[in-house]
Design brief:
single chain; 817 residues; alpha/beta; GIY-YIG endonuclease; Arc Repressor Mutant, subunit A; 7 domains; 7-stranded parallel beta sheet; 6-stranded parallel beta sheet; 36 strands; 22% strand; binds adenosine-5'-diphosphate; binds zinc ion; zinc; P-loop_NTPase
Length: 817
């Protein structure tokens, strides 16, 4: 009897490929193992075993596999189940899901380029001949393709050798290089715990009567420490006492003061694991009990808790429960910017058991985390990560937490799989038969609707930790301010007053502007011409710091012109404003304050965020200017004022979710203010202070927003009442896109009639020289999603067989965001 294996190739074709295997191989192979297979004329791919069987393929003759690459599966059965769900639901191939899930080091193929990891190989006795040859070759050449390796080793079957070197950390696959940055550690000083009692203190002070300098330093320490709760920066103490370093040092040597390194000023996390954790306040404990109650009936529970109500503290209690059962927890966050603070908070409770997985990690680090998760090692009990961590090989998952569940960054936009990590996480949890906890201060309409329909449980918290009041939100009418000349640059008098007061009280400020760069448009005052991107249908954004015009869609850039491209006039001016401009104005208005910016331009590299966030936490920065990055769940303790420079941009965005999003965005930024002690103050600058959304935001009326928006979604047939599939056609030829889109829409209409909208050009209709045209399918509540998708796939297949449209790219986006 012949044996075959069906494998998943990491390519966009939605089918499995069949290869011949031997009797011995069939005994050995298990689903989820990797095999090297030939593909096409000369290519080698790493493929994933799906299943084995005895049915020869009908239309082609199966080739043998080259080699088995694993002793044990690298993907689990349950993972494959999730991947199949994602492939079916989001209309993409299993191979695309596999490619998104696996760190590239697991998927070596003929096009892969390897390079030396620059580790010194001191002892090459551990290397076999083949490995040695490759390492040697990499000493002469900076990189090798797999084909080079084939030539060097004079054989086709090279992937195991390459894999083994990757596993040993001696080579890496070529990808973007990340900077290596160690977060800056600041020296702090505190009283030795031993001397915390009043009595003991008296004793030391007496003992020190013979060392007056040391005594004086200690007294100064106490007077300063009273303000700062426990620990001080060593440098602050030094500058306060005018004593030489040796005096402080002798106090440390005597064990009276203790010096330690710290990344942040979170007083309770002094590098010690605090096993018991914080004590939940009553309302938090009630919420926790309610969630437990809800879980008896629901697999998913939505925790709707206002900002700074302590949702994270509640998650921590749940994590604790799960870890005691020796199960893993997946903790999803929308953006890696958030991981820094969170990891610190979680490590304070769970120490080494916390693992982080994100795309800015090097390939090697990602493979390491992958293996820890797969082996359920003690280092990967709590896995924090953005979107793609839902695709990890969990062994014994016990709970999924999705924080800031409303965030749109949970939906992958490009490339396929265009999956929603929150929704996929719920499916993942269901596969493991465990619970999912969704949390947000501003739930998505989808989730809140599901809760209202009793599909999910719902628990609400309406108060903040310590009973701190919700921030006071003041709407500032820009029209009026401009008319009465109360503006300095983009700052209203009210905003300036509040900032000044906060600064003079030693408190911090966050300024939010949802555009980066200096100004989105440079305009000729003579003829009105604005420089456009040559490849995209958008104006170029002015970045003053680099003196460049940049396209935010494709990255194209050019120097700022001295004269208008169209008429030659030199009267050029900017229109609109971005974070760079706000930063510049803030520096001018508040010359004594330290101002920093957090946006895509200042946070590149692996530790980009960390640097900015740490500096702000340590109060090395007074005013933080940022894009939506500053909105997402960050927990700062000294922020008194939040300024939203212009609320109108996001309100006027041409998208059916724009109002919901604006509410979320403003509420979330506002929520960064006054989180632990003092009530925060938020100023929202706008030309439309009477806009319903702004009224709802300023009065913290989530439910009103929900009810009103749901009404609109009903009326205009949008999610969560209807489901959407967006189909985008792309081609460089304008006419071809039009023809193709007409053909496509017409075919769809035969099935779905009036539920098909378009084709229509999106607001930015050309990106990277490709024209885009969209068609939208709406799926009513009663309609079968499965049948709809089958019909779409069928139409898509016939479209792809039309010769004229061969080069037109089609993007299917299910549950488009
Ligand atoms: P959320 O996640 O709801 O925005 P957090 O969990 O970040 O709220 O809590 C806000 C702040 O209050 C954090 O700094 C947190 O450490 C603190 N906090 C919340 N609950 C407690 C508690 N029970 N004991 C001590 N501090 C708490
Ligand atoms: Zn001009
Ligand atoms: Zn462009």
């Amino acid at each position: 009897m012949l044996h075959f294996v069906d494998v998943i190739l990491p390519i966009p074709i939605p089918k499995l490929y069949t290869y011949v295997i031997t009797e011995a191989e069939v005994q050995f192979l298990k689903p989820g193992m990797r095999v090297a297979v030939p593909f096409g004329k000369r290519k080698i791919f790493t493929a994933i075993v799906h299943h084995t069987h005895n049915n020869a393929p009908l239309v082609y003759e199966a080739k043998p596999i080259y080699q088995i690459l694993d002793e044990k599966p690298v993907l689990t059965q349950k993972q494959l189940e999730l991947f199949e769900w994602i492939g079916n639901y989001y209309l993409c191939s299993l191979g695309e899901v596999v490619r998104a899930a696996l760190p590239s080091g697991f998927l070596i193929e003929s096009e892969t380029v390897i390079k030396s990891a620059n580790l010194e190989v001191k002892d090459d006795t551990g290397l076999n001949d083949d490995e040695f040859l490759i390492i040697e070759a990499l000493q002469h050449q900076s990189s090798l393709s797999i084909n080079d390796v084939i030539n060097i080793l004079e054989k086709q079957r090279v992937l195991p050798v390459v894999n083994s070197l990757i596993e040993k950390g001696l080579i890496t696959v070529q990808e973007e290089l990340f900077e290596t940055y160690k977060p800056k550690l600041v020296k702090f000083i505190k009283l030795n715990d031993q001397y915390k009692s009043e009595k003991k203190l008296q004793l030391i002070l007496e003992q020190l009567s013979k060392a007056p300098k040391q005594r004086e330093v200690l007294l100064t320490f106490f007077s300063m420490q009273a303000k700062e709760k426990g620990a001080l920066k060593t440098s602050d103490l030094k500058s306060a006492v005018e004593a030489s370093d040796s005096v402080i040092k002798s106090l440390i040597d005597k064990g009276i003061l203790v010096e330690f390194d710290k990344k942040t000023d979170r007083v309770q996390f002094e590098g010690e694991v605090n096993e018991t954790g914080l004590k939940l306040q009553d309302f938090q404990q009630i919420a926790l009990n309610e969630i437990n109650e809800n879980f008896k009936q629901h697999d998913v529970c939505l925790l709707h808790g206002v900002t700074a109500s302590g949702k994270t503290e509640i998650y921590i209690q749940f994590i604790n429960q799960i870890l005691q059962q020796n199960q893993q927890v997946l903790y999803l966050v929308p953006e890696i910017a958030l991981t820094t603070q969170l990891v610190e908070r979680l490590q304070a409770h769970f120490g080494e058991q916390v693992a982080v997985f994100h795309s800015k990690y090097s390939n090697f680090e990602r493979m390491e985390v992958w293996n820890h998760v797969l082996e359920h090692s003690s280092k990967a009990q709590v896995i924090i990560g953005a979107r793609s961590s839902v695709l990890l090989p969990f062994k014994n998952l016990g709970l999924v937490i999705v924080d800031e569940e409303h965030e749109q960054s949970y939906k992958q936009f490009d490339p396929a799989p265009r999956y929603h990590a929150r929704d996929s996480a719920i499916v993942l949890a269901a596969i493991f038969k465990v619970k999912t906890l969704l949390g947000s201060a501003t739930p998505s309409l989808e989730s809140y609707f599901n809760a209202k329909q009793n599909k999910y449980g719902l628990v609400e918290i309406n108060q903040r930790y310590n009973n701190v009041l919700m921030p006071e939100i003041e709407l500032v009418d820009l029209k009026d301010k401009y008319k009465r000349k109360r503006m300095k640059g983009h700052f209203s008098d009210r905003l300036i007053e509040e900032i000044q007061e906060a600064l003079s009280n030693g408190l911090q400020v966050i300024l939010f502007q949802n555009r980066r760069g200096f100004a989105p448009i440079v305009e000729c005052l003579t003829c009105g011409h604005a420089p456009q991107c040559p490849h995209c249908d958008v104006s170029l954004t002015f970045h003053r710091y680099r003196n460049q015009l940049r396209c935010h869609y494709c990255g194209y850039n050019r120097a700022v012109p001295q004269q208008c491209d169209a008429c030659g006039s030199s009267h050029l001016d900017t229109k609109g404003f971005g974070t760079e401009q706000i930063e510049a104005e803030a520096k001018e208005l508040f010359p004594d304050a330290k101002v920093t910016r957090m946006d895509l331009d200042t946070t590149r590299g692996k530790y980009g965020y960390q640097k900015v966030i740490a500096a702000f936490e340590q109060h090395e920065v007074d005013i933080l200017v940022g894009t939506q990055m500053v909105t997402k769940g960050l927990d700062f303790r000294n922020v008194k004022v939040v300024g939203i420079m212009n609320a109108d941009n996001s309100l006027n965005f041409p998208d059916f979710r724009a109002h919901e999003r604006s509410f979320q965005l403003i509420t979330q930024v506002a929520g960064r203010a006054g989180r632990t002690d003092e009530r925060g103050k938020v100023l929202v600058q706008t030309f439309n202070p009477h806009h319903n959304i702004l009224q709802q935001v300023s009065q913290h009326k989530y439910y009103d927003m929900y009810a009103e928006q749901m009404n609109e979604r009903h009326n205009f047939k949008y999610p969560p009442i209807y489901r959407l599939i967006k189909i985008t056609l792309k081609h460089k030829d304008f006419n071809k896109v039009n023809l193709a889109a007409e053909w496509y829409a017409k075919s769809l209409r035969q099935f779905f009639g009036a539920y098909v909208l378009g084709p229509e050009f999106p607001p930015v209709s050309r990106i990277r020289n490709q024209y885009h045209k969209n068609i939208l399918i709406k799926i009513a509540a009663g309609q079968s999603v499965k049948k709809t998708k089958e019909a779409v796939v069928k139409i898509n297949n016939s479209f792809e067989s039309v010769k004229d449209f061969k080069a037109v790219r089609v993007v299917l986006n299910v549950d488009n965001y």
